User: What shape does this take?
Amino acid sequence: MDILTETKHLQNRLDDLRNSQMSIGLVPTMGYLHDGHLSLIRKARSENDAVVTTIFVNPLQFAETEDLDTYPTDIERDTFLASEAGTDLLFTPTNEEMFCDDVLTTVSVQEISTVLEGASRPTHFSGVATIVAKLFNIVGVCSAYFGEKDWQQIQVIKRMAQDLSYRVEIKGCPIIREKDGLAMSSRNVYLTKEQRKQASHIPESLLKAHEKIKDGERQSSVIKGIISERLDSSSAIDIDYVELVNGENLSITDQIDEETRVLVAVRIGAARLIDNMNALEGLNL
Ligand code: PAF
Assistant: This one.
């Protein structure tokens, strides 16, 4: 695996690969890699001739009140893990490399960026879309892999790629979970031991909801009630939202069908955690 920090070096390498007719898989990350990220790299490895993994803690997607300064990093460990999982080129640009000056140009995807996560984090998805657009421009024609834990992020990126005609195929990959069902996230390290125990209420609430859906319940309000009740039974958990929406356009769904996605966001201590499932399929445990 080669480590590159400069855009033009990465582009030169990618041009060479493409001239040799090699397909490219892109895995954009903010580092502090866990099994979720590694599953994306492995998938990219299995479907492409060359794999580029990027590590960049993108300041544009953090609000001033958020955890940019404390976001966990461990570049040595990441380098080892990215290589083990099958990365060929690891791109780790500095802030200066990515934004030589003030950022005057941004990308925002209307409507689907303003609901759910966007309601609590109004500038978040414009930050994500801007950096992902930049990475797509740097890397060029490729398949790009994203984890379904950030379900809304994938919809925003898919829409951006479609609207701006990127020649990038967006691939959503299943959520990877801890033994107790908690979705893997770099932010799980913020949890104390006790908070970590309480966090298992999140997958449990979704499992309970899915049981009810399997029994034939189709009213979103009933399912929301079941999830909220389970989450509220932990005093450590503050619910941000529990919603059932159309998985693609994210509009609120009253009656569950095969397109329905159940999404939750909670705060536990310093961590803001999200999870989701297809309403009819449930969790992949
Ligand atoms: O999902 C993430 O880690 C980030 O939002 C992404 C896609 C790498 C953009 O910074």
About this structure: The beta strands are 2-4, 24-29, 50-55, 89-91, 142-147, 168-173, 237-246, 260-268, 271-278. The chain has a mean pLDDT of 97. The longest helix spans residues 124-139. The pocket of pantoate is lined by residues 28-30, 58, 61, 128, 131-132, 150, 153 (CB under 6 Å).
